[in-house]
Each structure stands twice: as C-alpha cells, then as structure tokens.
Design brief:
The protein is of the alpha/beta class and 227 residues long. The protein has a single domain, classed as Ribonuclease Z/Hydroxyacylglutathione hydrolase-like (Metallo-beta-lactamase, Chain A), CATH 3.60.15.10. Helices cover 22% and strands 25% of the residues. Strands 6-5-4-3-2-1-13 form a 7-stranded mixed β-sheet, covered by helices on one side. The chain has a 6-stranded mixed β-sheet with strand order 7-8-9-10-11-12, covered by helices on one side. Helix 5 packs parallel to helix 6.
Length: 227
C-alpha cells in the first residue's frame, strides 16, 4: 500500500511502487523530525531535492553516502554542484529539469516551476506518480498562476503545499493554490511552525480550503497516511 509520512518542515517520506523515497531531507537540524538520520541507513531508493536552501537540501550528501543504491532527483545544475563540490559519482543522479516525466524503476518523476530563490539552479516542485497515485510537492514557492497548468497536466491526488508565509505562501494563498491545482484527494500543509518566523495556524488553511470545495489534511510530524 503506498504511504506518505510528514517528517516536519518540508521533509516527506513516501513508499510508492515498492520504493522508499524522501523529499527535501532535512533531518538533523529539523526540530520537528520524528526520526534520526540513521533511520535511513542503507534503505533509501530515491532522494528528491527541490532546491539548495539548507532546509531542503538538508542531509542529502550524507544520505547519498549512507545509501549506495539510492539515486538523487533534482535539476541538472544542482546535481552538477553536488557532483563537483562533494565528489559524488554522476551515476548517483537522475539528470532532469522542469519538463515531462522521467522514469525511475516504474515510478514517473517530474520537476515543476516554483517561485522562490536558490543559489545553484532554479527552485522547483516535484511530481511523483506510481501505484496509480500522483503526489505534487510544491517545494518552496509563492503563489503563481501556472499552478493551474500543473494541475491540468499532472492531475495530482495529493498536493503538499508550504503555508508558513514570509518565505512562501501563507495559508490563504496556499488555499488559492489548491483551487488551481484541484487535488483529487487531499491538500496537505508543509513548511510551517518549524521556527517562529514561519509560525501559522494550519486550521486557517483547512478552513480556506474547505470554503473552496476541497479537502485538507493536517498531519502531525511523524504521522502517516495511506495513499
């Protein structure tokens, strides 16, 4: 059964198509994380990184070294930075950029536009499709009209949206994003309440989403949902 678990901040663990996946793996410096880094020792298949800010790139380099079979999915330029800076073999990377689906052992992966900042390459969102389920992780982003197109193209069942404000969308803006993306199951808030600068009430997001005729699901750090 495919499963999603929120690990606090923007870190999300997925089990899809028999693969163990982590997105934006901030673990060691994540005060909300329910697990330690050694939880991922030699059991990861895929690491997805939306952009290079420390709270999203997180523990990627250490996880690559801990998981010889794992691959990294990110923009080509971010992968090149990791390869050159940390001497990581190119065989560890799935080269990509914003565009269509890329196959990874029967799972379809895609990168999407995100409106944010980063040092190495543009920031992105990520789409993961497998087991008949499509998950869209928006990464760090403000609200943008092309979310409507992302919804039309990828038809997500679950959307993971930042709601913390200041650096990303706030709850009201994220609810507008839900209306554009049209998730078929749930919108799940992420990237909030990790630190005081992004402290919000996720129930504000729930109310705004419900007003628009969609469903929101607030997970506690460490809580899972079967997809």
């Amino acid at each position: 059964m495919p499963q999603l678990r929120w690990l606090g901040h923007a870190a999300v663990e997925l089990y899809i198509n028999g693969k163990h996946i982590i997105i934006d793996p901030l673990i060691k410096d994540n005060p909300l994380s329910p697990v330690k880094l050694n939880y991922f020792d030699n059991n990861l298949d895929l690491i997805i990184v939306t952009h290079d800010h420390y709270d999203h790139l997180g523990d990627t380099v250490e996880l690559i070294k801990m998981n010889p079979k794992a691959k990294v999915f990110a923009t080509y330029d971010l992968e090149a930075y990791l390869a050159n800076e940390y001497k990581i073999d190119w065989n560890k990377f799935i080269p990509a950029n914003v565009g269509g689906y890329v196959d990874f052992d029967g799972i379809k992966l895609a990168l999407t536009k995100a409106v944010h900042s980063s040092e190495h390459s543009d920031p992105t969102g990520a789409v993961i499709n497998g087991d008949g389920i499509t998950v869209y992780h928006a990464g760090d982003t403000g609200l943008f009209e092309d979310m409507r197109l992302i919804g039309e193209l990828f038809k997500p069942d679950y959307t993971l949206l930042p709601i913390g404000g200041r650096f990303t969308m706030d709850p009201q803006q994220a609810a507008i994003a839900v209306e554009m993306l049209k998730p078929r199951k749930y919108a799940i808030p992420i990237h909030y309440n990790t630190w005081d600068l992004i402290k919000v009430d996720p129930n504000d997001f729930v109310r705004e989403v419900n007003k628009r005729g969609y469903k929101a699901l607030v997970l506690q750090p460490g809580q899972s949902v079967e997809l």
